[in-house]
Amino acid sequence: MNLNEPRSQSSFLLPVLLISASVVVAGCGGTFTATGHSSSGQASNELSGRVMGGQSPITGASVQLYAAGSTGYGAGAQAMLFNAVTTDSNGDFNITSDYDCTTVGASTPTYLVATGGDAVAGQNNSAISLMAALGACGDLNSSTHVILNEVTTVASVWALAQFMGYGAQIGTSSTNLLGLANAFANVNNIVDITTGISPGAQTPNGASVPTTKIYTLADILAACVNSTGTSTCDSLFSLATPTGGTTPTNTLDAALSIAWNPSNNAASLFGLAGAQPPFQPGLSTAPNDWMIAVSFSGGGLNYPTSIAVDKTGDVWASNYCSDSTECSSVTELSNAGQPISPSTGFATGSLCESYGLAIDIYGDVWVTNQQTTCAAGSSGDVSQLNSSGGVISPSGGYDGGGIYFPVAVASDTNGNVWIANQGDSSASMLTNNGSQISSSGPFGGGSLSGPSAVAVDANHTAWFADQTASSGSVTSISSDGSQVNLYVSGGSAPSGIATDGISTGGSKGHVWVANHDSDNLDVPGSVSELMLNSDSTVTVISTGYTGGGIDHPDGIAVDGAGNVWLVNYEGNTMTELQGANGANPGHPLSPSSGYGADAKLQVPYGIAIDSSGNIWVSNYGASTITQFLGASVPVNTPLVGPPQLP
User: Fold this and answer.
1) CA-to-CA separations, 451 to 2, 400, 442, 445, 473, in angstroms, rounded
2) β-strand pairing of 46-53 with 145-148
3) Rounded distance, CA 305 to CA 461, Å?
4) CA 5 to chain centre
5) How many CB atoms lie within 10 A of CB 482?
6) Is 23 helix (H, G, I), strand (E, B) or coil?
7) Does 293-628 match 46-190 at the fold level?
8) Could you give the angle at which helices 211-225 and 251-260 cross, rounded to 10 degrees?
9) In terms of DSSP bridges, do strands 46-53 and 92-96 run parallel, antiparallel, or are they unpaired?
10) Around 495, how many Cα atoms within 13 Å sit in the side-chain half-sphere?
11) Of 6, 631, 606, 636, which Cα lies nearest the Cα of 294?
12) CA 171 to CA 184: how far, in whole Å?
């Protein structure tokens, strides 16, 4: 937690579209889930569409229908047409009774890929590869009419980046089918695949979609598509290749490489869009990076603070509230950003000045309230809600076990919750039914110093960031409260903490600390790393990594690959650092100015990663939540203990 004054809110405007749409037939749109489709497939095994290069039809392109794999990430896709179909002189294609959903399962996500063909150059361009994510196979029918162009390609690649591999491969693990299904659904927020324009037909009201950025990315691909496939494409492929990476040979793989490496050659890639690009309006200047971020409002968002994702991919946020009245609440959004909670949020009489939020293994939502009521003099409590937003905790919340002005909460794999009490520098622990494990009084007295954040490691040990310590420190408390240890972690004003569970050499995991400040006034914060040794000792690996745009960070999270992400409270950006299992732990992977400079972050506070690889950020200063599509490696949700790849 940071005690700075909030900034004023700003409004978010949907982009103005100046693109002319192709003629289409309304279709199913492609919203889908991992289950719920009939085993018989669909009424008619037919679908149709058009392949376009910019505003020109692509003649002679080969179109194949694929079913996503389920045996591993970025692999295992299955071609469903025995013979690919070919586009005519108008770029049109028809698929008639040549695929069978029963062979892959009606709920299996599908997608179309068009390769080769002639756009405007008068000869075949083998570098052309365009894509449109469709959705569940069982939803396809004769009314499905799809546009494949550079815009559908960009939308599909960015939303599905963590499930893709070169060669038009899409796949996931057998344990993350829902994460893949949610990623396919996210495509529909940023593009309408029946028209090939952005934003999508299913975009939630009030959402801010970066259409100009999407169009500029599409224009960059179009420069290669609408060519002979030689020098223009070579420039794209070269610029899309990261240092030491594989050079792509077609536009689909080039788009994927850009999505994976969003700050690589960003300005030079922008220059490929040309003076009169086919998709407008585009960006007027080069972006800092090519991340695609969508911001959502609604559902009662009101100065949101902590954020968490449940097992279905829904996103929950605690709302501190904009004034001193009793209006604190909890917001729930679907993974596609649709409000599930009412316009006032899920509100109870005990919610007040709500900072911390966590979801336990049973799906219950825990919220820390700095005060029991918003009247002065109360000492705070903890509220428990079920997965539908209903209140489980008693009137007034849980206030036993030493709870005193609590600001943060975390859950372990046993279903217990740890609470950081900033008011008296202590920690409390409750079971899932609210019973007080710390019944004789709070834990950690004399060691903790204004704890602002808490995380749990693989051994159920809780780690607290000591925000008000005279020098940067963290405190660990064993699962029964009997062992309390203090470690000097460096930095100043630790405000966020996360564990990774990565075993490297003699370690049993690592602890990462977001330091809001630094002893050096010229260094706007840092990140510390501690290693949990196999002999139960702890080694401080670094007292402060810097770089990558770190600017007074607060929220911190670790993704499924072990890389570390933080939100910069004052920089209004995101930073990524290489994780403990990398060649250079702590090395900045984000540019010097951070990621998301154009994402409209405002006083970002909380951060969470979902099973689709999306990063979610709460904007305290704008009362919105921002989703960075497919930006990180997926994490099993809800987060209880260290993150795991699902």
Assistant:
1) 11, 18, 13, 11, 10
2) parallel
3) 24
4) 27
5) 8
6) coil
7) no
8) 140
9) antiparallel
10) 29
11) 631
12) 12
The angle subtended at Cα 41 by Cα 39 and Cα 42, nearest 5°, is 140
Q: What angle do CA 139, 143, 145 make, to 5 degrees?
A: 95
Q: What is the largest CA-CA distance in the chain?
A: 82
pLDDT value, residue 97: 76
Phi, psi dihedral angles at 155 (to 5 degrees): -60, -45
Is the peptide bond preceding residue 638 cis, with omega within 30 degrees of 0?
yes
Question: Which residue is listed with tokens 């810097």?
Answer: 546
pTM: 0.92
Structural tokens at position 147? 């546009």
Q: Is 429 strand, coil or helix?
A: strand
Contact between 447 and 415 under an 8 Å Cβ cutoff? The reply is: no
Q: What is the pLDDT of residue 326?
A: 56
Is the separation of the CB atoms in 233 and 287 below 8 Å?
no
The Cα 525–Cα 514 span in angstroms is: 8
Examine residue 248 and say whether the peptide bond preceding it is cis (omega within 30 degrees of 0): no
In one letter, which amino acid is 295? S
The contacts of residue 65 (CB under 8 Å, 6+ apart) are 47, 79, 80, 81, 95, 99, 110, 111, 112
Alpha-carbon separation of residue 349 from 391, 462, 502 (angstroms): 10, 29, 41
Pick the closest to residue 430 from 472, 481, 468 (CA basis): 481
Contact predicate 553/493, CB 8 Å: no
pLDDT for the residue 372: 60
Weakly modelled stretches of the chain, pLDDT under 70? 1-44, 322-327, 349, 372-377
Pairwise CA distance, residues 395 & 488, whole Å: 40
> Element (H or E) spanning 171, and its range?
none
Q: Where do the domains of the chain lie?
A: 46-190, 211-273, 293-628
Tokens of 175: 């344990």
Instruction: Identify which of 528, 571, 523, 563 has the alpha carbon closest to the alpha carbon of residue 547.
Output: 523
Q: What is the pLDDT of residue 327?
A: 67
**Cα 187 to the chain's mean position, in Å?**
14
Render 329-379 in DSSP notation, one character per residue: EEEEE-TTS-B-S-TT-B--TT--SEEEEEE-TTS-EEEEESSSSSSTT--
> Facing residues of 333 across strands?
315, 339
Residue 378, classified by CB atoms within 10 Å of its CB into exposed (0-12), middle (13-18) or buried (19+), is middle
CB 478 within 8 A of CB 510: no
CATH architecture of 293-628: 6 Propeller (2.120)
Q: Is residue 330 a contact partner of residue 391, using CB atoms and an 8 Å limit? A: no
Q: What is the pLDDT of residues 481-506, one digit of tens each?
A: 999 999 999 999 999 999 998 987 77
Contact 444, 429 (CB under 8 A): no
CB 593 within 8 A of CB 601: no
Single-letter code of the amino acid located at 435: S
Q: How many residues does the chain have?
A: 646
CA dihedral 134, 139, 141, 143 (to 10 degrees): -70
Second CATH level (architecture) for the domain 46-190: Sandwich (2.60)
Cβ atoms 529, 577 nearer than 8 A: no
